[in-house]
Amino acid sequence: MNRTIVDWPLPRVVAHRCGGSLAPENTLAGLRIAAALGLKAVEFDVMLSSDGTPWVIHDETLERTTNGTGRVCDTSDRVLRGLDAGVYQHRSFAGEPLPTFEAIAALCRELGLQANVEIKPATGFETLTGEVVARRILALWQGAPLPLASSFSEVALESARRVAPQLPLGYLCDRPPVDWQQRLDAVGAYSLHCSGTEIDDSVIKTANEIGIPVLCWTVNDRCEAEDLLKRGVTSVIADRIDIVASV
Predict the structure, then answer these.
(1) What CATH code is carried by the domain that includes residue 25?
(2) What pLDDT is recorded for position 5?
(3) DSSP letters for 70-111
(4) Model confidence over 41-58: pLDDT tens digits?
(5) Which of 2, 20, 148, 223 is 20 to 30 A from 161, alpha carbon to alpha carbon?
(6) Which of 106, 86, 88, 105 is nearest to 96 (CA)?
(7) Count of domains forming the chain
(8) Of residues 32, 58, 135, 231, which has the active-site annotation?
(9) How much is the pLDDT for 87?
């Protein structure tokens, strides 16, 4: 399957979950901190509520990152709008809202931040999440270069490709499988995303030869980031953006 190529250069450092460890993850506050540190790109996760609305949150459940309880996919937009997504990190972030995908997209565009949108489906919602997020990306970035949409779920990537063939996709895995090239081709993925500790030089070499960008997460040591970039990795995704941003 043909790949969709992005029309912007991938930056060397991408902020993990909006602002890395310097802000509550997947929040508007994180985007502002990433931009203030001079980063050009951020990664964040998108999941659907019980109303089918895309919200920016990593876990299938609310407890770790908000003052809410239960599964995101079982929670209404009304309840999600009232949650605090900042107090768990530090009292100075108390009152930071759980953001909708629309709010995050708007601030990314306002701040000039490129986006890696991770499609994060709750179990059983792979197809629907891929479709909804892909359609919303086309609407929210209308008239602007599209972000990169990645996922661990091949089903979600396939459904995103069906509704938005022009959308650049990223294939996410912990460690690239032996047949990683075939898997990327099957969904028409533009890039390969994997753990920085699980990438072999042979994979990097092959990817570079065939024009596949490689993005590695989560890289929080400056020397590790420099080593991966020297080996041919395209971008590193970091929590400690204060340490890695200047690489």
Answers:
(1) 3.20.20.190
(2) 85
(3) SBGGGS-HHHHHT-BSSTTT-GGGTTPBPPBHHHHHHHHHHH
(4) 999 999 999 999 999 999
(5) 20
(6) 86
(7) 1
(8) 58
(9) 87
Q: Does the annotation mark 90 as catalytic?
A: no
pLDDT at 134: 98
Q: Categorize the per-residue pLDDT at 90 as very low, low, confident or very high, splitting at 50, 70 and 90.
A: confident
> Residues 101, 77: contact at Cβ < 8 Å?
no
In a domain, 7, yes or no: no
What's the average model confidence in pLDDT over 144-151?
Answer: 97
What percent of the chain clears pLDDT 90, i.e. is strictly above it?
94
Do the domain assignments include residue 6? no
Is the distance from CB of 45 to CB of 57 less than 8 angstroms? yes
Point out the catalytic residue in the list 16, 120, 136, 161: 16
Say yes or no to pLDDT of 2 above 90: no
Position 207 in a domain: yes
Q: Which of helix, strand or coil describes residue 206?
A: helix
Neighbours of 201 (CB within 10 A): 9
Q: What per-residue confidence (pLDDT) applies to 7?
A: 81
Would you give the DSSP letter of residue 20? G
Phi, psi of 116 (to 5 degrees): -110, 105
pTM score, whole prediction: 0.97
**Per the domain annotation, does 5 fall within a domain?**
no
* Residue 1 pLDDT > 90: no
In the residue annotation, 193 being an active-site residue is answered as no
* Enclosing domain of residue 90: 13-244
Q: Write down the H helix ranges in the chain.
A: 28-36, 77-81, 101-111, 126-140, 154-163, 180-187, 201-210, 222-231, 241-244
Q: Answer positive or negative: Cα dihedral of 91, 108, 10, 193.
A: positive
Contacts of 2 (CB under 8 A, 6+ apart): 188
